[in-house]
Amino acid sequence: MATKLILHQTHHTLADFEGIFKTIREFSKVDGLHLFPELFLTGYPLQDLVLQRAFIDTYLGFQTGLDAWARACPKASWRALLGGLRFEMESSGIPTKIKNVIYELVPGEGLRVLYTKRLLPNYDIFDEQKYFTPGTANAYYDFGGHTFGLQICEDMWASSFHELDPCEDMAREVREKNLNLSAVINLSASPFEAAKRKKRFERAKNISLLFECPFVYVNRVGGEDEILFDGASFVASGARLSLELKHFEADERSFELEALTGDYQGKPNFRPENTWEGLFSPRIDTRTTPATLKSWTDQECADVFLALKFGLQEYARKSGFRKFLVALSGGMDSALVLAVVKLSLSPQQSVEAIYMPSIHSAPASTELSEELCRRLRIPLSYFPIKFLHAMVRNSFTQGFPDPFEGLVDVNVQSRLRGLLLYTRSNQTGAMVINTSNKSELAVGYSTQYGDSVGAISLLGDLYKTEVYRLARYLNENFGDPIPAGIIERGPSAELRAGQLDQDSLPPYDRLDPILEGILSYRLSKTQLQGLGFSAQEVTKVLELYLKSEYKRAQFCPILKVKAKSFGFGYRVPMT
Amino acid sequence: MATKLILHQTHHTLADFEGIFKTIREFSKVDGLHLFPELFLTGYPLQDLVLQRAFIDTYLGFQTGLDAWARACPKASWRALLGGLRFEMESSGIPTKIKNVIYELVPGEGLRVLYTKRLLPNYDIFDEQKYFTPGTANAYYDFGGHTFGLQICEDMWASSFHELDPCEDMAREVREKNLNLSAVINLSASPFEAAKRKKRFERAKNISLLFECPFVYVNRVGGEDEILFDGASFVASGARLSLELKHFEADERSFELEALTGDYQGKPNFRPENTWEGLFSPRIDTRTTPATLKSWTDQECADVFLALKFGLQEYARKSGFRKFLVALSGGMDSALVLAVVKLSLSPQQSVEAIYMPSIHSAPASTELSEELCRRLRIPLSYFPIKFLHAMVRNSFTQGFPDPFEGLVDVNVQSRLRGLLLYTRSNQTGAMVINTSNKSELAVGYSTQYGDSVGAISLLGDLYKTEVYRLARYLNENFGDPIPAGIIERGPSAELRAGQLDQDSLPPYDRLDPILEGILSYRLSKTQLQGLGFSAQEVTKVLELYLKSEYKRAQFCPILKVKAKSFGFGYRVPMT
Fold it and tell me: What's this model's pTM, rounded to 2 decimal places?
């Protein structure tokens, strides 16, 4: 008899126990082995939630209910493997150990723990060692005459900074015990990064070759603040990708294990891939002088575009917003933000643009903003700030003897825009989308409480050259939503007469690889010079970067599309 | 011959290798055993700095230089135990293991590793398992015919969430090997919390009783963004506190080991103290109905006051500020902030106050602000916002059809103040000190980019009732800097006519224990009701708390004076 495996690529809000239970009740009509993602029973990442009594009580109640429900089910030929939490409590009810486990759900019998996650990621955004106790043993699962090796997410990754490689340890045990695995099953909650899927497949292929059986990978879908889970579950049979599920969307696929054909002749490559450098997917091309940032492929652009739309919608849905508000400047960043927002809208949603020119805004900025909104069919409000700007200047000149010029004057304009934008947001209940990019954030090229405001940042993980790349991709694939004039004009904050970004910064095609070197490779000044940059520009960039930490500390959440982003996983001293 | 131990309670900026080397050169003229804090050679906490190539290269260069310097020293009777980092590298130069160790420095011989920290704290603000590999063995050190047990910071704490208790493990080994310890030495980098010193002494006493010898504790001094290290190094000889060093100030003390007298007759109490609840120093008095927040003692007020002054000055010094700017409202929070800033000033520094009344500001607010500044001898700028407020309102009424009222109107006033405050800050180069308190932050009772702005928050870890308590303490001990009228009037944001905090919130003497229950105990709604609060008020507070996460996410660093604070150690999902 054929053995059916069903991959459930689920998409639930954190701790949506009702929705999760509903999903379980529905699948249980179908015979076969049902597979659900890591921490399916709670959602991920939970952070301090796992320590809150209200959460613990609710979860334990849910777990007890689920167990009782399964016991009451008639005996049947379905089983389910689901990721969940296991709490070990003191008598006082304080959890002493929390484990990230795989439960088996058996009709007529209930819920039981099969496996505890062995590798707890604790780098970058991951804090699992803060909360969880690791498992100490491999686990196998028998179903339909087959034996399956079990893993949770990080267990599939060897690394130079974990002592243990669970794959190699399982391979050793399989040899010793003479086991014959029909598949390795990995339940995951693995965040999206541009180009990460390729890395996952590569690793999966090697695991499949190592065990000479399919590797079954079930990942969750969800946007948790800045962290995006893309699903894209799959089955690798040796070097062959036998099955792949949707990206950034709930999906379900089943297959018959016996029908899978694979080629397991290759030799697995098991060098540790998770070195610090490998982990942060370096994307600098060092063959050129100076080094350059590798340009995104069309596929990478498509993935990032999908990720941004998904992340925006997840954040809006959970925060209860149906309206969006974007401040246009006539420049590239705000135009791309507006286009992405517009292209992500559902029928019940709307977006409004507001253009707030100052005395330094070029006439072209007005025209290009209008043209952009015409193309996107978005209402544009024109709200000049020159009178308010003049009034603040006059009040200050009367009230204080100090000069009102330079940075003082520049920042007032930016902060007036922030104030007006949020006033408009308060009027309409719209969510303000931030328009800063990663290059700006890295060098502090923004005004705190001015153009840096927003509920969420779409472009905060995209360097300026990537902003241009994505804009061109959208124009090529979505009927030129962005006027060519916006893409072609030089970047300027327009806060002083004739101001251009390039006057105070290296050109972006040099700035961006320097920044990537600093942020992802953590290179020193000497090493950056070795990549072909001048001591002067490297020093300038490092200075700007180091002294703008305080601005990043108060920045909004950034949708994460890279291995190393500003945001939750970025932990540096400020002073 | 007597054995001299010298405790160096040092105060260096992170990675100030020059200053650190200078300190070492100076002490080396004195014979005896010199003790320095945890990670003395680098500073703490370093976070992602330990992964940056520039930092690694500089540190390794410094370490090599130090080793060479010590080798070149003439043989002498001094030794030093110093906390530092140990990097284990791949051939490519990528660190595979980083250890938090104790080095011994020997004149004529150089630097060698004695001990690796066994317990790596990874809760709350601590991320040590992200970076460091733990040690696996106890270590002992022989000097002057004595044997010393070695520990680093967390090693002294047993806990229900660490598998290992290094004290008990060392006690077992001491018995097995029949060792005779003359002291247990603990090199620490342990952050300040109100009432933590008492807990440290208590634990130290028990360790001293366990080993029947003195416990020598050397802690660092420093303010690292929100985290404050208070020094307060000490020697415990059984239940006796033989020596205590200064609080929040570099200090150095020496003593002769043989001259210490102690009473080691008591029985040590070794139950794990670091349960989740013990760790977060709960301060709710549950004997009353409803439960109340325990009031600070005068000593705790003095400690917190010292901590706030120290933290402010550390942040200002490292950010290069000599001027401070505080927005006064006529209310309690801003008055206390101004008083703390004023009382912390050095002769080269100055503070300016600015009062920005709106149409809703009471005349009493003006008078009280003036009276406050008179008492504190601080210049007060009077900058009414009513014209700007009216102009924004008029522009909006002309530009948009939507009503300009309620929250829209309230927030404009607050944001105008934020804008003007930062404009003034840009004019004078002054650091803006935030005036929010912990109760406000917890319920989101503030305007984003409005009254929530600032470079650093002094009161963000103090509940409103603690703000009043500290104000009264300052008045009693520093000649009434704060007018009684400010302490006695009801709290109000003055953004609507006749607005009082109590109209939309439970009274602070009920709100604060509810918040402490949520934040430090992580209590559920049911449990809070069990403490004597009504379902209605608990639900209201929980709702306000949960929906204001996005405001806290963009808040400035908060000087941490409690075990559980908003800030770096507070990690919760936003949506």
Answer: 0.94
For position B532, what pLDDT does the model report? 95
B38 in catalytic set: yes
CB contact under 8 A, A404 and B427: yes
Domain-wise residue ranges, chain B: 4-257+266-279, 296-503+549-553
Give the integer Cα–Cα distance in Å for B144 and A290: 58
Phi, psi of A263 (to 5 degrees): -120, 105
Question: Contact B53/A523 with Cβ under 8 angstroms?
Answer: yes
Is B524–A381 a contact, with Cβ atoms under 8 angstroms apart? no
Q: Please indicate whether residue A153 is annotated as part of the active site.
A: yes
- What is this model's ipTM? 0.93
Catalytic residue (one of B4, B38, B314, B551) = B38
CATH architecture label of A4-257 = 4-Layer Sandwich (3.60)
Contact A403 B319 (CB under 8 A): no
CATH number for region A284-553: 3.40.50.620
CATH of B4-257+266-279 among 3.60.110.10, 3.40.50.1820, 3.20.20.70, 3.90.230.10? 3.60.110.10
Which residue, B14, B519, B482, is CA-closest to B223? Answer: B14
Residues of A in contact with B424 (CB under 8 A): 396, 400
CATH number of the structural domain B296-503+549-553: 3.40.50.620
Which of B385, B426, B457 to mutate: most A Cβ within 10 Å? B426
Q: What is the mean pLDDT of residues A14-30?
A: 92
Secondary structure of A22-66 in HEC code, one letter for each residue: HHHHHHCCCCEEEECCCCCCCCCCCHHHHHCHHHHHHHHHHHHHH
For residue A275, the model assigns a pLDDT of: 53
Nearest-CA distance B342 → chain A (Å): 22
Contacts of B399 in chain A (CB under 8 A): 381, 383
Give the whole-angstrom CA distance, residue A272 versus residue A162.
10
Q: Find the mean pLDDT for residues B130-137.
A: 94
Asked if residue A222 lies in contact with residue A249, where contact means CB atoms within 8 angstroms, the answer is no
Residue A422's nearest CA partner among A450, A386, A388 is A450
